[in-house]
Amino acid sequence: MTAPSVEQTEAQQQKIGSHSPIAVVLHWGFIGVFAYALTKQIDELDELEDFSLLQNEMIFAAVFLALLFARFIYMRLTRPTVLPSDTPRMEMLMAQSVHLSMYVSLAMIAVTGLVIGGMYWSGIKDGTEMHIALVAHEFFVQTSYLLIFLHISAAVYHRRKGDGIWSAMVPYFWREASVESDRT
């Protein structure tokens, strides 16, 4: 595969738009919310004996789910992708699959967390049902890590490719210089 010519790269960059400032804030803000969730996660199930901790975890999971749903709806209604229409079908399919899978996986972390919290609150603290809920929760956490890795890898790929995709979602100060000069 040969590198695109300067003319091809410039033409490609001009086709690529940018997400709105609201979308960029939602994207990077959600990264902060997810990072916060990782830092406050519980280590052992019996920590949920503390009712205020259980209540806080349940509220956080519900808010996390609501924010994720709002972000999903906003992104679908405003600009679902910045990939140009001539993007190879397989690349478009991979991008859509990873994005949708991230939404599902992140939502299922919150849903399984709510199930675990609800079961614990109602007195089910062990047994097959709790084990299944815990395994599902861990599965979605690990799946999210993999999908986030794939998402970041694709972003770095586009940054190295210099096709303007990187600059569509990063804060202004991280944007590709050639793309910014083309847009102004």
Description:
The protein has helices at 6-15, 21-40, 51-78, 89-121, 128-161, 177-183. It has one domain (19-183). It is mainly alpha-helical. The protein starts with 5 loop residues before the first helix and ends with a helix. It has 6 helices and no strands. The chain is elongated and about 55 Å long. 72% of the residues lie in helices and 0% in strands. Helix 2 packs antiparallel against helix 3 and helix 4 runs antiparallel to helix 5 (128-161).
Which terms would index this structure?
184 residues, mainly alpha, 72% helix, 0% strand, disordered C terminus
Can you lay out the helices and strands and say which pair or pack?
Layout (H helix, E strand, L loop, with lengths): L5 H10 L5 H20 L10 H28 L10 H33 L6 H34 L15 H7 L1
Q: What average pLDDT do the residues reach?
A: 82
pLDDT < 50 stretches: 1-14, 179-184
The radius of gyration computed from the alpha-carbon positions, rounded to a whole number of angstroms, is 20 Å
Q: Into how many domains do the coordinates divide?
A: 1
Number of strands: 0
H-E string:
HHHHHH
Largest beta-sheet characterization = none
In short:
By secondary structure, the chain is mainly α. It has six helices and no strands.
